[in-house]
């Protein structure tokens, strides 16, 4: 059964570790993340961007696939199915499709409009027992056409959104989706500290988990980050393993072209990346 992310994140914040959100793109991705979470006895959040939802034939298909797969694979660790960077309309579609967690990304609206729309979704999600993530100060880089400029959030605006009763809060602290450029100056821990001072027990979310050095991840967790999103890193490890298989000509020998063989190294590579991140974030054994 899918669960809201509320309990797992409150436990993570109190226990000084973070739960990984791993974005899914297809059946192999979903299976790799679920099996790794179960093997490591870790809670997990499956992230679905609007683009990935469309690619996987819509949110209902995704929700059905995930719940059926959990049943067939006998997954017993807590799993939240979460809309990633949802639009206002997309949030309602996912609530209807059976997602257990929603991110409404109103960071591109003027703050008052972000507050009003988030307030409305807080009420709906509370009534339905779903967790809700809100965002202040857009995340840098590009994800599914949503472009942010590496903004740093205003802690007072973070408090205004946190006070609405959201479950978790994503705040820009110089983080970027995708690979970090060579001239990246690192996370703004001063801002993170100020945000945590004003938002107290609220679990904070770090987007753009790919490529952040381990010591910065650990420091962010020590300053109140309880959810870390990883997407690109699984894509890169999947692509590298698939490239190696083909460059070694393995698809040309015997039945190596069988998709179950062709996609197997990439599948194992995703599992290895998810394991590495869960160990780093400290969520192993916390289910
Ligand atoms: P990366 O692709 O940089 O890992 O970021 C993922 C993310 O933040 C999803 O919202």
Automatic annotation (TrEMBL):
Database matches in Pfam families: F_bP_aldolase (PF01116)
Positions bound to dihydroxyacetone phosphate: 178, 208-210, 229-232
Amino acids binding Zn(2+) 1: 85, 177, 207
Top-rank taxon: Bacteria
Transmembrane segments: none
InterPro entries referenced in this protein's UniProt entry, alphabetically: Aldolase_TIM, Class_II_FBP_aldolase, FBA_II, Fruc_bis_ald_class-2
Residues annotated as binding Zn(2+) 2: 105, 135
Gene Ontology terms describing biological process: fructose 1,6-bisphosphate metabolic process; glycolytic process
Cofactors that this protein relies on: Zn(2+)
Cofactor note: Binds 2 Zn(2+) ions per subunit. One is catalytic and the other provides a structural contribution.
Keywords noted in UniProt: Lyase, Metal-binding, Zinc
This protein's record includes keyword Transmembrane helix: no
Gene3D superfamilies: Aldolase class I (3.20.20.70)
Active site (catalytic residues): 84 (proton donor)
GO-annotated molecular function: fructose-bisphosphate aldolase activity; zinc ion binding
CDD domains, alphabetized: TBP_aldolase_IIB
Protein name listed in UniProt: Fructose-bisphosphate aldolase, class II
């Amino acid at each position: 059964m899918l669960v809201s992310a509320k309990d797992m994140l409150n436990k993570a914040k109190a226990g000084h570790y973070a739960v990984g959100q791993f974005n899914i793109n297809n059946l192999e991705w979903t299976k790799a993340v679920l099996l790794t979470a179960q093997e490591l006895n870790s809670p997990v959040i499956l992230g679905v961007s609007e683009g990935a939802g469309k690619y996987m034939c819509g949110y209902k298909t995704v929700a059905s696939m995930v719940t059926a797969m959990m049943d067939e694979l006998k997954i017993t660790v807590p799993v939240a199915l979460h809309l990633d960077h949802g639009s206002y309309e997309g949030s309602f579609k996912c609530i209807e499709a059976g997602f257990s967690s929603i991110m409404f990304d109103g960071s591109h609206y003027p703050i008052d409009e972000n507050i009003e729309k988030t307030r409305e979704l807080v009420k709906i999600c509370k009534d339905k027992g779903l967790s809700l993530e809100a965002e202040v100060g857009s995340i840098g880089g590009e994800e599914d056409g949503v472009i942010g400029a590496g903004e740093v959030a205003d802690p007072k605006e973070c408090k205004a959104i946190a006070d609405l009763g959201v479950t978790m809060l994503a705040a820009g602290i110089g983080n970027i989706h995708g690979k970090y450029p060579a001239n990246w100056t690192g996370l703004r821990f001063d801002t993170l500290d100020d945000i945590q001072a004003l938002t107290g027990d609220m679990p904070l979310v770090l987007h753009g988990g790919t490529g952040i050095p381990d010591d910065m991840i650990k420091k962010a967790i020590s300053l109140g980050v309880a959810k870390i999103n990883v997407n690109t890193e699984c894509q890169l490890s999947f692509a590298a393993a698939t490239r190696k298989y083909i460059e070694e000509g393995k698809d040309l020998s015997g039945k190596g072209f069988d998709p179950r063989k062709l996609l197997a190294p990439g599948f194992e590579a995703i599992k290895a990346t998810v394991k590495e991140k869960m160990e780093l974030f400290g969520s192993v054994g916390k289910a």
